[in-house]
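FAQ
Q: What does a multi-component entry look like?
A: The components come first, one per line:
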Amino acid sequence: MSRTRVVLTACVLAAGLAGFRTASAQGTIKVGVLHSLSGTMAISETTLKDTILMMVDDQNKKGGLLGKKLEAVVVDPASNWPLFAEKARQLLEKDQVAVVFGCWTSVSRKSVLPVFEKDNGLLFYPVQYEGEESSKNVIYTGAAPNQQAIPAVDYLMKDVGVKRWVLEGTDYVYPRTTNKILEAYLKAKGVKAEDISINYTPFGHSDWQTRVAAIKKFGSAGKKTAVVSTINGDANVPFYKELGNQKISAEDIPVVAFSVGEEELSGLDTKPLVGHLAAWNYFMSINTPANKTFIDRWHAYIKKPKRTTNDPMEAHYIGFNLWVKAVQKAGSTDVDKVLAALPGLEVPNLTGGMAKLLPNHHITKPVYIGEVRGDGQFDVVWKTTGTVPGDAWSDYLPGSKDIEADWVTLKCGNYNTKTKVCSGQSYK
Amino acid sequence: MRRLLSLLLAAVIVASPALGQSQDDGFLAAIGELREASFQDKERIVERLSESGHASARPVLAAWLDDRLYVRPRDQKIFIVKSTDDSLASFDLVDPVSLKDAGSGTRDDLTKIGTNNHLRRQLKIAVARFDLSSSDTNVRLAAVQQMLRALDEPSIALLRKRIGLETDAAVKAEIETGLALVALDDSDPKVRLDGIAVLAHRLRPDVRNRLASLLEKSADGSFTEGDAGVRKAAAAAVRTIDRRRALYSGVETLFFGLSLGSVLVLIAIGLAITFGVMGVINMAHGELMMLGAYTVYVVQLAMPNHIGASVLVAIPTAFLVAGVAGVVLERTIIRFLYGRPLETLLATFGVSLVLQQLVRSIFSANNRAVETPAWMSGTLQLNEALAITFNRLYIVIFTMIVFAVVLIVLKHTRLGLDIRAVSQNRAMARAMGVRSEWVDAMTFGLGSGIAGVAGVALSQLTNVGPNLGQSYIIDSFMVVVFGGVGNLWGTLIGGMSMGIVNKLLEPYAGAVLGKIFVLVALILFIQRRPRGLFPQVGRAAEAQ
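Then the predicted structure of the entire assembly, as tokens:
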């Protein structure tokens, strides 16, 4: 074999390989991941990015989807809300992804909504949120208020006998909307206005002396008092510390939190928090075979045996499996076909029961109340029997009582049952 | 009634040896049921244990309350563990009946017997009933206070018995409160009046609510309290209690203001030196505080067994760390930019971003958990209506000490003399032989070091994370500008008054609006007096 021949063969082989490579690149299904990897939200969102990468990895090991490999496209919107919209456009228009898993804060979701609706994309949103929204292009796998806040209040009212309520929140859209719903709900249950105290503090508030003293005073009126906390992120640590310092124990005035999970507790001294409550749809400590497998797989994937799992991770687990199932059912990754296939599909939860996608693009979820343990995990003290269907539009707010979301028969995200009008806009 | 009697027996009689064997069996059986008990079952078991009269009842209940009661699934035996320290590889086990050592076990061998809020409350009261006969006055006091939170028949009976034996005045007063509360339910109006007479001198909110409930009307319009004399006495007592509580609540607000004020002063003293005395706009001041806070974290990592001392060790360490960082900053960047405030501002802002990213790279973007030493947590209970948290109290004291030290350094040391000379008239100072460059570096180092010390205090109040500095930098500039640039006393008065005004407004306006009001007021004030509360006077100051 002459030298020229060798070179030629090599060239042909190389060309063949290159050709094969492009062919395989055309044969992948792109999965967009839109989570902040830097900035203030990076702490929470990086975990979710890793969850999706793990799920993609696992799916590829099972042989991919529709005979093709999945390929994750990760972008970093850097906790910057307008950048979320820009990165979403990049994913949908330039990378042509079949589906996007992403967003954490409500403001980032609101920022990408117009992009997803214009480009007809598909977004799976994994975090508990304030509701009052249902878009054709978004699947909400986190809890709506009736799947977290309302059951938690029910538990405190019926099982703990709470008569007086402090609604304490950080000053932004999620706490304000949630507290508005809770206030209406409590009043509907016969709680008097003087037995409800609502207060907001800025992001990162650290001087809790006055607030905690006020809570103490409010709670000393002779009726059992509880705090419903929508305090966000960092501000929780000095809040719980001050509760401990002013000797308010969970037995006297329990605090039930909607934004404090295993991930948040992993960075702090949990001794003063023991006995306080959190309401979620998933706890790492829930002992089921599926959950154990998931935790073991997560530890093996992330290579850190002490990492925690949390509620939004489970939401992504459910969302990813729903999408895979819908694609298999539709036989295509085309967004319209997948959206048509999605409603009615069921996938298992990690903690037992099935998550079913409803026509309003929300899912059914079990609700758990957990008490904080000394080791930063939760003991489940209460759970709903069966699952609770997510309600996009709260039944307790005057403006949204009559509004319904149904993408199967009505084809509308905010259909007013009184005026029989679909406002045409799928988000507010 | 049977329960009550047996409980009395339990409290008074120590288990006699003749009863021993059968009692042990019953006790063991009750504990044994814990293995599969639901929370309701557990509540019944707590009652059975506390009525058993067994000598080990209190240790078992106390261990359970502290999460030290475990079951070994292998042989279904229940054990008390001596310590639940997570760092231990194995637990030392104690037999719950004999209270003798029973070997050791690893964490994987054992399953904790859990509690919930309701059960913990019950356990606390059960333990308190045993503690009522403790020889330690403080234990007895805590026990009575615990029992008063939920008075029931057995507790009342125990308190009645105890009051005759009690010698300590404080404990006796607490028991009297409890019995007076019970007396309000008596059918004899005279007993009720006596009860009110005792309660009128108390400040507790539950006492006040109970008295106020005597004045309420029931659904049919008649008073719940039938006797007019009793109602009159109760109304007078409620008025007295309300008046005194209002006074103490005012004192409390004042203290909150002082404590917020001292945090403001503490974060501003360093800046008062670098910005006030040297005129350098140091945007990295917040990050120097952050360095101080991270120093506490590192010191605690280095001495995990001496958390109590770690904060004290961290104070000089943080001063050195932040001080050296400050000197390096001054020598490498700021000295080239004297007299160019805009460039200094931009350069130090850049430095602040670099420092933030540095700690992100070293310690990760997550907040770090800094432990609060035991001596800094809890409250100083001045009376029933007024309690001051220790951490805030120490920070007020600490601020005063730091302020005094800085004042002494500036007024009574050679370095202070040089600093004042250079800041007042650089050219003249140089002519007199002061090494002005060295003084600049030292002044900046001093200001930065104090920022580090402020960081130590902040680590006890807020989250230690890369953004710690950013959340305080604006506040510290505000205090210095308000107090008057270049005047330490102005910083003290300015910071304290801002803290107090903020805390006075907060209950009415909320935390967000309260802060806005303070800012608006500050802007208006600066409009009228651009040089702050205590402007520098003299030709040098006018010329700046």
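Q: Is there any commentary attached?
A: Sometimes. For this entry: The CA atoms of residues 289 and 350 of chain A lie 8 Å apart.
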